Amino acid sequence: MASAPKVSKICFGCEPLGGVDWGLISLSDIASAISRALELGINFFDTADVYGLGLSETRLSEILGAKRHDVVIATKGGMSWREGTSGQRAEISRDSSPAYLRTAVEASLRRLRLDQLPVYFIHWPDPKTDIKHTFEFLSRLKAEGKIGHIGCSNFSAEQVRAACEVSEITFLQLPINLLGDDIDLELAKLIKEKALSLVAYNVLANGLLTGKYNTHSRFASDDRRARLPLFQGGRYLDALRQVSEISARAKADNQTCAQYAISSVLRRDSVVSTILGIKSCAQIEENSSVMFMAPDCH
Question: CB-side exposure of 265: number of CA atoms within 13 Å?
């Protein structure tokens, strides 16, 4: 089995570059944060073709310039879309069929201006396509040199095992955080059995674990948190109580709430990196410090 590329413990999440679902963003601020991330030793960038319907990939390539060849870019596919009309959201559906993936991979290569995608994840399992057909085809694309490493995102243990039967899987991407997102025992055993590199996302629970929100916080209609169940009613109040307790532990450990949440996930078995949606230099400065706090046990 080919070894996984060495990636930084912090992965720069590029979904905000898509310009959708994150409220007001500043492209210049994100560009500055990417530049600072490179200076701090961050070499791992996560995007997806569906983020901004290709816009995140295009903008990431433009911001990185020639440096895009020196870092590990992970993108995700298997989501087709039809653009909405009259300001409506795009219609998005899962499609991991070989025919669609050929088109999707070629499009990602063009937008990222790369000859090979360092890491390619299937974003979500497609119930209409046999997993073995999907990953047999990805293996073919890897043999053609279009993909460096193959990964599964949001897959169950059974689905990961099916993929591993026909393809060499390097990475697994899953939500993990201190508010309850976690992996089950069967999947944890499989990760060790197959020596998969685990990349954690939603580590800060859509920002809740930064500790900066309270009962008076309000979110604009173009911010996903305005519609997420975690930020509604009693569930939100319960989460805020949890965050308050976590913040107290973080303070006792001389960390910010965000740093504590990130470093806690990084100490988990098999976790090689944590994806953080970064929108400013201040965020990358605060969060990157955990790279030097968490022991490197991988």
Answer: 33
Here the tokens at position 274 are 């944590």
Find all residues with CB under 8 Å of 96, minimum gap 6, and list them: 77, 78, 122, 125, 126, 129, 131, 134
Asked if residue 118 lies in contact with residue 74, where contact means CB atoms within 8 angstroms, the answer is yes
What whole-number distance in Å separates Cα of residue 118 and Cα of residue 72? 6
Give 202's contacts (C-beta < 8 A, 6+ positions apart).
175, 176, 177, 181
* Residue 280 CB burial class (10 angstroms; 0-12, 13-18, ≥19): middle
Each residue's pLDDT tens digit, 256-267? 999 999 999 999
8 Å CB contact between 131 and 138: no
Q: Residue 112 corresponds to which tokens in the numbers above?
A: 């990222």
Question: How far apart are the C-alpha atoms of 289 and 264, rounded to whole Å?
Answer: 13
Q: Which among 119, 138, 131, 118 is positioned nearest to 157, based on CA atoms?
A: 131
Of the candidates 183, 153, 180, 152, which has an alpha carbon nearest to the alpha carbon of residue 168? 152
CA 141 from centre of chain: 22
Using CA atoms, how far apart are residues 247 and 190, in angstroms rounded to an integer? Answer: 33
DSSP H/E element including 212: none
End-to-end CA distance of the chain: 17
pLDDT score recorded for residue 1: 54
Cβ atoms of 47 and 14 closer than 8 Å: yes
Note whether 270 and 198 are within 8 A (CB). Answer: yes
pLDDT in tens, 102-149: 999 999 999 999 999 999 999 999 999 999 999 999 999 999 999 999
Q: How far is CA 110 from the centre of its chain?
A: 21
Task: Name residue, tokens 């500790």.
Answer: 211
Answer left, alpha or beta for residue 33, where phi above 0 means left and psi between -120 and 50 means alpha: alpha
Q: Report the distance separating Cα 8 and Cα 278, nearest Å.
A: 15
